[in-house]
Amino acid sequence: MGTADLMDYVWKYKLTIKSIISKKLQNWDWQPWESVITKQNKHLINPEGLDLLNKMLVYDWEKWIAPQEALKHEYFKPVVEFKEKEQAK
């Protein structure tokens, strides 16, 4: 998620970080979730899942995707379609 995003969050909400923790913080650049994809796990990952992760895993709660919106996300489309088929029976 990156140190810069963390610090933006801390400054935005006028939070404080204890000095013992602050001293241990390193300057990490934000890394896209795609950077964790390897040949071994590529078959387990899809673009919709990564998009949902990007919308859920952010420091600032005002930028989080709302649970209602998350359930409408494209990632859950197969689940919704299955449920609709089951209800139509």
3D architecture notes:
This protein is mainly alpha-helical and 89 residues long. The chain is built from five helices and no strands. The protein is elongated and about 60 Å long.
Helix content: 40-55%
The number of helical runs is 5
**Any idea what the radius of gyration is?**
18 Å
**Number of β-strand runs:** 0
What is the rounded distance between the termini?
A: 44 Å
Strand percent estimate = under 5%
* Mean pLDDT reading: 93
- Return the structural class: mainly alpha
Residue ranges: pLDDT <50 for 5 or more in a row? none
What general outline do the C-alpha atoms trace? elongated
- Give, in order, the helices and strands: HHHHH
Main sheet specs = none
Short structural description:
The chain is an all-alpha fold and 89 residues long. It is 48% helix and 0% strand.
Key terms:
89 residues; mainly alpha; 5 helices
